[in-house]
Amino acid sequence: MSAKIEDITDKSFDYAIIGGGTAGLALAARLSEDPSKTACVLEAGDPNINDPAILTPASYGSHFGNKQYDWNFATAKQTFCSDRVFPWSRGRGLGGSSSINFKNWSKPPADEIDDWERLGNPGWNWKNFQKYVQRAERFVEPAAELREKANIPLHEGDLGTKGTLPISFPRTFSEVETFLMQTTKNAGIPTAPRPYGGDPNGFFWMINSLDQ
């Protein structure tokens, strides 16, 4: 449930989480799985629950610069861009930047995650990262025809199928995307070997957080 700050000032909680972005909400969801514990998420933005502007795929990009959804930060002056300052969109509201990121679902290279462990943080490695991310994933495989047409590389075990977050590929694949795929090939950009298994280097179609 969502509430205003004045509604909870006289209440106590076992956990207080600052920020209702992707990390904050995931943490709150896990902590609240214990029915004996309570968690409060403090978010400066609006709840934006059941907001068509966020839930409708065709609204891509409409949030940028809109103060209801975007903090609209500015970068420092960029030396190699003639000292220009650029907008830096960050999600404002529950969901954080995941609410305005075109519904994309991606994973980092395994080496980047393993670097955390190499820096002296035991357990912060790709194997554990995958295990916990897959707990959230409920992946629905694309139709065989779409998979072949879009050259979608999937490997068994790279994506979770029993989590609470539905993820899948869009059901359509347009000529524009066909040309884009051919253009990247002509430019010498290879298809990513395992975009969801730790090797996303190259071109690939990204999974979306869509419930189909």
TrEMBL record:
<keyword id="KW-0274">FAD</keyword>
<dbReference type="GO" id="GO:0016614">
    <property type="term" value="F:oxidoreductase activity, acting on CH-OH group of donors"/>
</dbReference>
<dbReference type="InterPro" id="IPR000172">
    <property type="entry name" value="GMC_OxRdtase_N"/>
</dbReference>
<keyword id="KW-0732">Signal</keyword>
<keyword id="KW-0560">Oxidoreductase</keyword>
<dbReference type="GO" id="GO:0050660">
    <property type="term" value="F:flavin adenine dinucleotide binding"/>
</dbReference>
<comment type="similarity">
    <text>Belongs to the GMC oxidoreductase family.</text>
</comment>
<dbReference type="InterPro" id="IPR012132">
    <property type="entry name" value="GMC_OxRdtase"/>
</dbReference>
<dbReference type="InterPro" id="IPR036188">
    <property type="entry name" value="FAD/NAD-bd_sf"/>
</dbReference>
<protein>
    <recommendedName>
        <fullName>Glucose-methanol-choline oxidoreductase N-terminal domain-containing protein</fullName>
    </recommendedName>
</protein>
<dbReference type="Pfam" id="PF00732">
    <property type="entry name" value="GMC_oxred_N"/>
</dbReference>
<keyword id="KW-0285">Flavoprotein</keyword>
<feature type="domain" description="Glucose-methanol-choline oxidoreductase N-terminal">
    <location>
        <begin position="91"/>
        <end position="114"/>
    </location>
</feature>
